[in-house]
Amino acid sequence: MAQTKTDRIFHALRERIEAGELAEGVKLMSIRQAAAHFDASKNIVVTAYDRLVAHGLAASRQGAGFYVTRRLAANAEPLNLQEASDNISLLHAQLDRPYTVLVGDGRPPGAWLLTSAPAVTLTHEEVGYGAPHGLLALRDCIAAGQIAAGIEVSPAQIVTTFGANHALDLVLRRFTRPGDTVLVDDPGYYPLFAKLTLAGVTFVGVPRTPRGPDPAALAALADLHGARLFFTQSLAQNPTGCSIDLPTAHAILQVAARRDMLIIDDDPFIDLPGVSGTRLAELDQFSRVIQIGTYSKILSPSLRSGFIIASAEIADSLAELKMILVVNSSSYTERLIAQIIRSRRYEKVRTSLARRLERERSNGISRLEQLGFSLFAPPSGGLYGWIRLAEGTNDLDVAHAAAGHGIFLAPGTLFRAAEDTSLPGLRVNWSRVNDSRFFSFLKGLR
């Protein structure tokens, strides 16, 4: 991970505590003194100090400042695990769900998704562990869906997984080593940042524009860091909601070809109707693109089922790795999804979801405009949008204030690959945005 000012302050103080230079009970510099010493804002210092507190290295005393509490225990969590945990604080909030208004949640409401499923009977061949690539019946359905979209795919190019995050884990284990540098969208998918941190992989952000990742920046950063992997999202990106257009897709693939780079396209809305933009795989046909898909956003998060599409050679290597790590994914779940797709129920669910999203998105955008708020870009479809906040606004403070009203917001800072205050904003979920309590809160920000 590219070190931010917060990281540098945290590591500098942590090292001094570990070395014994700052003994237990010693008072740390005041926020003002530390800001001057480290040439950083007070907000950055507070965040670094809060991280020390979270790791058990410091404690805050009301009205007296921060004090060293103890040296790092020999059995303490590895630093990369602690830092990865820091990156997924937003995910904790979504899973714990202590809020009444869930505008920042990453999923559609449960009532919008599959609420019942048909009974499943496995064949004799499916009762065991199954093939490493996953259940053939589901892979046939996935391949048919891609062919219908104009992309030639065979079941041999598909590996089923326990969801998109499991797919990302397989790709990271297969193609990265500690100390490597990879490129990511900025803003981008924050759980990916946590996974990279845990793997000891440095990540550098490629600026995301309303038309997709900036190809010139991608080329320059690939050259500078020798990066061989780029993680992006073609359609309705999380968190901005915008898609890659055709000229940008061509330019990205040209960069990848010149620099022998693989592109991992993580697309939870691969099957959602009404999403505009250009999928990189449409042009590349899985020469350099590895596609990740999931059923969590359209059917149900509880199914924990996803897939990888790649060249046959890469798919074989990922299937072998999957076999080593988890033996195989669930034949039962995959048979259930295959039956849902073949019965046309999937078509009804995804069409209904797209229709409801379009209605809520249109209404939400209209209400935001009435309050004077604008978006990073017109959404291309999908679940997400990025509300711009006034320059100089601390979106973390905004989210904290909203939490006091029972409103869960997703501050844009958490989606940034590097510490950058130039794009303060909030990621919103269009399926949950039209709550009068949220708009009343926004009105108070104007």
Can you offer a commentary on this structure?
The model has no long low-confidence stretch (mean pLDDT 88). The radius of gyration is 23 Å and the shape is globular. The strands form three sheets. The protein has an eight-stranded mixed β-sheet with strand order 3-10-9-8-7-4-5-6, sandwiched between helices. The chain has a three-stranded antiparallel β-sheet with strand order 11-13-12. A two-stranded antiparallel sheet has the order 1-2. Helices cover 41% and strands 13% of the residues. It has 446 residues and is α/β, with parallel strands linked by helices.
Global outline = globular
What proportion of the residues form beta strands (DSSP E)? 5-15%
- The multimeric state of the shown protein is single chain
Radius of gyration: 23 Å
Helical proportion? 40-55%
How many angstroms separate the termini? 35 Å
Low-confidence stretches: none
Structural class per helix/strand content? Answer: alpha/beta
Q: SSE order in H/E notation?
A: HHHEEHHHEHEHEEHEHEHEEHHHEHEEH
| Largest β sheet strand count, sense and barrel closure | 8 strands, mixed
Mean pLDDT: 88
Features:
single chain; 446 residues; alpha/beta; eight-stranded mixed beta sheet; three-stranded antiparallel beta sheet; 16 helices; 13 strands; 41% helix; globular
